[in-house]
Amino acid sequence: SFEVGIPKNFAFKLTSFPPVNFFNFPKKKQKLDKRWIESLFGKKFLIKPSEKFPNFFKLFKICQKYQECFFQKNPKKYGISRSETMISEKDFVLLNRQPSLHRASLMSHSIKIIPRNKCIKIHYSNCNSYNADFDGDEMNMHFSQNDLARSESLVLSSAFHHSKIPTQKTIMRSLIQDSIIASVFLTKKDTFFSQNNLFQILGFLEKP
């Protein structure tokens, strides 16, 4: 329930400019040492020594395609010690639905990139917090730009930390609608599953 699904186009547009420092320099340098470039979804393009000439053009095309995603063209604004990084899975974003009625109208979620999706997907348990009623609600998304904002997203505005209404101490994040109906049907005494259906249901469970 902490994740939010976003389309691939969102991931291309949402970027940040983290500074190249002692902690993240080995990770950036690793792309050069291992002779591959990592794309949006972690696909590695290997350059084999035995095929230097064909793979050189392949690498050149990849660099042209993703040049705006790795390095900023305007060094005067950001300096040469920063690189442009696209949003990736497990990053934190802030979601807001207007009008903001209470504190839980602005919460942070972990990113899950869904390639064929065209809208923002959130878990049922977060609908009451955003007062979402499934009629084409518009959401605002902000990608944290520095380490301080990311730490605040993890500690202060995390969706897990807004499960209750502060004034009434009542539960706000909970299952609703068809998630409850499905739970009732699955737990009825006269409900039996075949082996194939059971393994199919277990396959959708999250790994511990």
Automatic annotation (TrEMBL):
Origin: domain of life: Eukaryota
Keyword line: DNA-directed RNA polymerase, Nucleotidyltransferase, Transcription, Transferase
Coiled coil: none
EC number: 2.7.7.6
Domain RNA polymerase N-terminal stretches: 1-187
Family recorded in the similarity comment: Belongs to the RNA polymerase beta' chain family.
Protein name per the record: DNA-directed RNA polymerase
Organism: Hemiselmis andersenii (Cryptophyte alga)
